[in-house]
Design brief:
CATH superfamily of the largest domain in chain A: Response regulator
Shape of chain A: elongated
Oligomer: homodimer
CATH architecture of the largest domain in chain A: 3-Layer(aba) Sandwich
Strand order of the largest sheet of chain A: 2-1-3-4-5-10
Order of helices and strands of chain A: HHHHEHEHEHEEHEHEHEHEHHE
Largest sheet of chain A: 6 strands, mixed
Number of domains of chain A: 2
Structural class of chain A: alpha/beta
Largest interface: A-B, 67 and 68 residues
Chain lengths: ~350, ~350
DNA sequence: TTGAAAGCGCTACCAC
DNA sequence: GTGGTAGCGCTTTCAA
């Protein structure tokens, strides 16, 4: 069923039917009701491509996530973020188009998305400290919002992030309070902004007590299960092994715990482990407030906020936003000059 | 830059330029080269909406994933599957549109995708034993492929799955070989087909040795971290607690391990744990062949296969497919009658 | 308050 | 081998 047919059924012009359905004020309310009812009955939906062609909008938002050649797995955190964003898009009648591209094809992917007119805006995932994509998106005139921040970017851009620095500061402080002296950091790739911030939080907490981070206790790498496993084994084989671990991702944490178990060490007695995106920290704290971590739930919330902001940027009406728990962990900002 | 401009620059008609770019044979090769070069130079990309409107194709595949109201997190396995599929789409010039819908809105979502003409085909995720969506998609004439299977579906449909039953059969058999008598199954929701199959594999391995599964040792639920945590605590508080756990998801496994750790039990001595989608099983087995599990890597492979098959179904040319490890874990099929 | 018609950017048919 | 043009389904002037 298309507009032509529908309007013929109704004995009206396409113009009137279109106007009725799109809420234009000049349509007689009686007519509008008739049209709406018929549209409902026939299950009429405007063809997205035709509508897009006529309006110049695609009613879609792109999410581009990179997939390095060395490590093809997708960080589960993207799933949570995207789930939050998707909910908002659905409510607003937007589609989400997901591009999964090799890092070397990334610039090309953005240009194509723009030239093809496939999306009205983009969410940029996984920013590095130096983030060339920000300049690129600006130069091609594609509205965008960054999931995370780019520390070395001096220009102006919108972002939504979880508070990585504070989370790692608090987690480290907690371990220090427990009496740990040798704390290991099993971090993500520190060229990535989030990992960089986590490290800063870690170091700041140590500095607060007059301590200096020991490079021998810090690992950085793609956050796979295998990486967690081998990191722990390396770290524990050292002369002065750590007594606690701060782990950047629940996937690595699987490997971390496995390695610890295999050595017959007992958590909480021989060794402490805190994982960044770990929903159990709620459970142990009465179920409402996060202790140290930016959990999966707060990432989902970040996705919602990001979607709302981007839709606003491209001129969509306000979406009512329900404030939930965890908001405190979330940061929303507009950066001019180096990211805060 | 659009076709009109480009053709004017070249002093050719839109027709010729279009034909040159789309590989039609009747174009002079010299002309074609000129056109290609100019298109390259100006960064010309045909507008996707206009092209779609003219051809009736959207050059996009939809992935619909449901998001139950109780449990908003996205299973990381979707990310891996989607990453594999996305790679294929990109190569073939297809976009992926991702719909995240509440279960009760699902039928509506499919109808809309069809009516709007947003996608040329759909990947159906997370099928239940009784899967009404299969009938729905057939009735609205939307090409689709199922990621998984629907045991109670008697009609004909294409699917790609990992071998859940065999994986759980082998894992159970292994635990029995180790001498375990009381093995717990921490499974997903058994209305879901994958969980149903996993349970069947579990029970079949027991039956093979003349044993019967003890209902008191089986748990079923949404695979969250908290679920794993509470399940283990419940199970271990019983009079005759299990000595081994078979866990359906690495997310639940995080909770499972945490609970075990907290009780001061030692893995491998007091208790054994096998997790379904656990990439470390490679590491321990020389890095090439999966022991028991359908790992994240094989799920990624499944995504590739699914994309290829669906594209074929909607009449796209063959994609060269590189056979990799793990293929043995993968099942590809066309079901007529109850799923095998 | 309604309708006719142009036009969004492309493909594909038909003529040359 | 190349070009003119109708038409995909919608929105949006402009006219009535």
């Amino acid at each position: 069923m298309n507009l032509k047919e529908l309007s013929r059924q109704l004995g009206l012009s396409q113009t009137t039917v279109s106007r009725a359905l799109n809420g234009y004020p000049e349509v007689n309310e009686t007519t509008r009701d008739r049209v709406r009812q018929a549209a409902d009955q026939f299950g009429y939906r405007p063809n997205a491509r035709a509508k897009g062609l006529a309006t110049g909008q695609s009613m879609a938002i792109g999410h581009v996530i990179t997939n390095s050649t060395s490590h093809e797995m997708v960080n589960p955190i993207f799933g949570d973020f995207i789930s939050g964003a998707g909910e908002i898009y659905a409510k607003q009648g937007y589609d989400m188009v997901l591009s999964i591209v090799r890092d070397r094809d990334e610039e090309q992917a953005y240009r194509e998305l723009k030239a093809k007119g496939a999306v009205d805006g983009i969410i940029l995932h996984g920013p590095c400290n130096d983030e060339p994509r920000i300049g690129l998106l600006k130069s091609i005139g594609m509205p965008f919002l960054v999931h995370g921040r780019a520390s070395n970017e001096t220009g102006d851009y919108a972002w939504v992030d979880v508070n990585n620095r504070q989370a790692f500061f608090r987690a480290t402080a907690f371990l220090l309070d427990l009496g740990h002296k040798r704390i290991a950091l099993v971090n993500g790739l520190e060229a990535m902004d989030f990992a960089h911030r986590r490290r800063e939080g870690f170091e700041a907490a140590l500095a607060d007590r007059g301590l200096v981070a020991d490079p021998a206790l810090m690992r950085t790498g793609e956050m796979t299960e295998v990486y967690g496993y081998t990191s722990v084994n390396d770290l524990l084989d050292q002369d002065a092994p750590p007594t606690a671990f701060l782990v950047s991702s629940m996937i690595s944490a699987l490997g971390v715990r496995r390695a610890i178990e295999e050595r017959g060490l007992k958590m909480g007695r021989d060794i402490s482990v805190i994982t960044h995106d770990d929903d159990l920290s709620y459970l142990r704290n009465g179920g409402d407030v996060p202790i140290f971590t930016a959990t999966r739930s707060s990432v989902r919330l970040a996705g919602q906020r990001a979607a709302i902001r981007l839709l606003k940027m491209i001129g969509r009406p306000d979406v009512p936003f329900k404030h939930e728990l965890l908001e405190a962990e979330l940061m929303v900002g507009q950066s001019t000059g180096p990211a805060p």
